[in-house]
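pasting for the record
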Amino acid sequence: MLMKGGHVVTVFLDIDAAFSKASINSMVGALTETNCNKAVSLWIELMLRDRTVLSRWGDSTATVTVTKGTPQGGILSPILWNLVMNDLLKEMDRYRTCEVFCYADDLAMVMCGVDLNTVLDLAQQALNRLVEWAGKNELTFSASKTVAMHLTRTRKRTTRVLKLSNKSITWVENFKYLGVIFDHRLNWNAQVENVKKGPRPSCLHYVTVWANSGA
């Protein structure tokens, strides 16, 4: 697409306090759709709903009932969250206007086409759907952590404003996503420089690894 003069718009998003604010109803509903054994599903639901947090300060004690979120450090917590995110992926796939990639609570939404205005229209429609989905699941996307990048090999750049919940999204020329720096021309210079600045294993490290390998 880029080699043919097309345009790619990528929006990087973050769900605000995702694991702490995940709706119990959303997690239970997503679990039910997997045809999980009913006894197991009920056990997990009871575990999620019947939780209390006890806090002590000196002679004072306070107990609060937990009404949302996944258990911190729980083995099932990543799975329950992934089930909720899978619901989002299925919802966005219904429209087939963009590709959504996610890892935990970090999302990258990609739209591409030959006409920039059409791509931007699709991007805004997709953002609106994300906000609608988040509202139904008692979640919010962090506007301050959301950025957009316009990738193209042409000289045409966009100044059009994309919005997330009526808040303008910042356009950036590069962004680190899952440890990799993407830039608007995909020349990877920023990523290469970042790797070069990182720690370099010493010769002793290689000798130790070679010795431990049994070679």
